[in-house]
Amino acid sequence: MDSNHSGDYVAKILVVDDMPDNLHVLSAILSDQGYQVGKALNGEVALRASKQLEPDLILLDINMPQMNGYEVCKHLKSNPETCDIPVIFISALDDVLDKVKAFEIGGLDYITKPFQSAEVLLRVKNQLNLRFIQLKIQEQNITLATEIQEHKKAKTALEFSEAQNLALLNAIPDLMLRLSADGTLLDYRISPPIIHETPGGETAEPEGSYLAVKGRWNRHFHQCAIRDSVSLERDWMGKNLAEIWTDDLAFWMMHYVNEVLLTSDIKIGEFVQQVEGKWQGYEARFVKSGSNEVLAIVRDISERKQAEALRLQNEALLRSQKQQIEQALQNLKQAQAQLVQNEKMVSLGHLVAGIAHEINNPVNFIYGNIPCISQYVSEILELMHLYEKNYEKLPAIQDWMDKIDVEFVQNDLNHILKSMRHGTERIRELVISLRNFSRLDEAQMKPVDIHEGIDSTLLLLKHRLEPEEHLPGIEVLKTYGNLPKVTCYASQMNQVLMHLLNNAIDALKEVGMQCSETPASLQTSTLPMLRIQITTEQMEDEAIAIRIADNGPGIPESLQPQLFDPFFTTKPVGSGTGLGLSISYQVVVNQHKGLLLCYSSPGKGAEFVMQIPIHQLPRES
Length: 621
Fold this sequence. Notes:
alpha/beta, five-stranded parallel β-sheet, five-stranded antiparallel β-sheet, 52% helix, elongated
């Protein structure tokens, strides 16, 4: 059966996702396949649409505001009108617990974002096929129940007609047993077509003969069902099931015999077991055929069970292979991204070191000559004072001194020289910070001053901390503890500090932007003070801790477990690669055997805590 169309019927699918882009993509994919697609942007709309549209399948996102996918599914399953609608969860949550929870509340399948169109269509088609098969089975069960009721009505008439009863028995191609309440075999029969199905060219016994009946079902039940070969030499009639078959099989049949006699309902059961590595199964229908007897119709389904077991084994193997391929692909993407990022940082380090070197030479030349210039200017000015005291001023000289305002020039010249000295000192500090940040000469672990790395990083980020148009500046508070020198990879630790401080600045800039965009009439208070607190301390277990806290918007608790995953970012599209915290985690945890933790609550800012040992064994970078 085609999952898109059954006759003239077009399958209806309801897509639920709070992201319009995802909703549009899924709708387009499904509509192109000929499905009738309904859309809902939240849980409440989805519940109303499921009643109005009466979909054959629901694709349900998990992370939605107000009412998440789990809650929507619970409502659907608790409503008799919608409880039978199959649900496929589509979510970026890839944790095993999330998937287990989805299946526990009634989901039939789970697709992880980002998804592939082919995968979505295949899973949708499989679930629709199962849905239509279930509906067809329900229709068949209704038809079967109707037929059974008709058979019950005709039962009295059939009991008076032996010929009709025999015709009915011969029409059933399975082993038929008539059993008493205590399990005594009152009668048994196999239809003629089954009797003549002898394997290997054996000579068939006469139709309906005793040996043909028992010989056929000895092969059906094999040695696991028939108690012993001697029973073939004795008639089954009048024997108890426990005398003919194994204890397990006899107990299974007696269970259904008792159920039918108590309820007068038709019971259908399967007996399945594994013998010598092969599955054997029997399906039986039990019908009350008298006041104290039951008719059992038994069919051998061993081949079907063996095929099902093989199919399940193959599916499990395919799933395992798919997971291995997906994991290998993810590892490859992560390694490639980290390699590119590392290359970028190395190139940046070379560039920074080169610029620092080129700037340092002329700046040192200027800085070294400023004291000499100051001394020379002072001596020349002193000479001018001596001339002024000891020689008569000529009119031309006096006119020129009045024109240039000698007193102002003398005072301003000192200010200019001081400004030049302060400017060159600032450039020298910036050059030193650039060289400390790159640390290209420190490829091996060595003791470094952590505070020096923090100060150098802050100096490089100073332009981002200053006020901008419509945005307040960011205040940095430093509380440094008495730290010893820490053995580490200096350049890598500087990269971690750069990532963490940049993230804090981005979060605070977002707060400032939101406040500046709020109309003045709606603002309840003045702009908040944007602050970053940096704290260092030595811990008792021969380790140091660096805490970087901000008073920004904070991080939702649901996102915190994914912060250090590769390619995960809370920033808008195009504003972040999702690699900064992942690489920081690799550097701190893997390279330095430390800890990188995040403590955050929405509206209360975020704090990242980095702990690394003071001493480590050197190894290759």
